[in-house]
């Protein structure tokens, strides 16, 4: 096995694993590891005959590592969330991680002067995130009886997959954070960690929507970041701010207070340090 193959699989494992942690952007990690451009190029290369074989081979190696990393980390996160003593501090770690990634998004906007757009774009992003947080719990799970109910559930998951695809393609957006906002983070990680194939089958429309969304949005997002970077990143910045109330687990009590402060600070510092490394 060539060293570049080993590095590709290892990068996929690290990116796939860290993507299970809300606040960590898979796109940002790919940039830090130097594989982001190759990933975007390989996705687009599938549609070009001269690059198709090379692109598919690279993506298969990357996905092999990503699936392994996703499985290993999801078991750890599920254990922490289900353990009563660890659940609250773990959620505060997630909250700190999301806040820690926000400054990197704002810096990426490259704001050079204060204008109405600097305030307008984040407000639109906040409004969009708050709107998503109003989605009823369980809406993205296929359920109910009858053909129309099944069809509606499938369509809803397809739309959710398109939203997740944006988070996968665009650096700075956490896929796990999007899953949390959509209300499907915990059931999905539990299904993956326990290898509950029946539960995983219910997410097939979500996977199809995500794959379709990746192909549809890769070129669009590349052009948006190239032509309108400030507006795009400010929208993302607003979305992250608007998602914070949904991520807040409540006020800790007793011995949990200092522990939650420590875990929130650890999450903030970890993601803030990662974003600083990316900037350099």
Task: Explain the overall architecture.
With 280 residues, the chain is mostly helical. It has one domain. The chain has helices at residues 3-18, 26-33, 36-45, 49-82, 84-109, 116-133, 147-169, 175-182, 185-193, 197-201, 204-227, 229-247, 256-279. Helix 1 (3-18) runs antiparallel to helix 2 (26-33), helix 1 crosses helix 4 and helix 5 runs parallel beside helix 13 (256-279). The protein is globular, with a radius of gyration of 19 Å. It starts with a helix and ends with a helix. The mean pLDDT is 78.
What percent of the residues sit in helical stretches (DSSP H or I)? Answer: over 70%
Report the end-to-end length measured between terminal Cα atoms: 31 Å
Please tell me how large the radius of gyration is.
19 Å
Return the domain count: 1
Keywords:
single chain, 280 residues, mainly alpha, 13 helices
Provide a concise account of the structure shown.
The chain has helices at 3-18, 26-33, 36-45, 49-82, 84-109, 116-133, 147-169, 175-182, 185-193, 197-201, 204-227, 229-247, 256-279. It is mainly alpha-helical.
């Amino acid at each position: 096995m060539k060293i570049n193959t080993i590095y590709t699989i290892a990068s996929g494992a690290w990116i796939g694993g860290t993507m299970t942690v809300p606040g960590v952007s898979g796109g940002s990690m790919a940039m830090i590891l130097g594989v982001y451009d190759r990933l975007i190029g390989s996705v687009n290369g599938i549609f070009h005959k001269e690059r198709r074989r090379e692109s598919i081979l690279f993506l298969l190696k990357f996905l092999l590592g990503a699936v392994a990393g996703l499985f290993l980390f999801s078991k750890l996160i599920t254990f922490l969330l289900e353990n009563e003593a660890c659940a609250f501090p773990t959620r505060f770690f997630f909250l700190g991680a999301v806040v820690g990634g926000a400054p990197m998004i704002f810096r990426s906007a490259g704001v050079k002067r204060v204008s109405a757009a600097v305030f307008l774009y984040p407000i639109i992003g906040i409004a969009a995130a708050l709107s998503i947080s109003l989605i009823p719990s369980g809406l993205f799970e296929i359920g109910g009886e009858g053909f129309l109910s099944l069809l509606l559930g499938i369509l809803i998951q397809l739309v959710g997959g398109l939203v997740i695809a944006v988070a996968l393609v665009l650096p700075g957006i956490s896929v796990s954070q999007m899953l949390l906002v959509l209300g499907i983070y915990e059931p999905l990680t539990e299904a993956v960690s326990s290898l509950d194939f029946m539960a995983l089958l219910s997410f097939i429309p979500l996977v199809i929507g995500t794959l379709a969304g990746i192909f549809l949005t890769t070129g669009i997002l590349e052009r948006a970041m190239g032509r309108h970077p400030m507006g795009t990143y400010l929208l993302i910045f607003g979305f992250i701010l608007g998602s914070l109330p949904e991520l807040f687990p409540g006020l800790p009590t007793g011995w949990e207070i200092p522990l939650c402060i420590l875990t929130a600070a650890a999450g903030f510092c970890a993601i803030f340090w990662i974003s600083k490394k990316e900037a350099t």
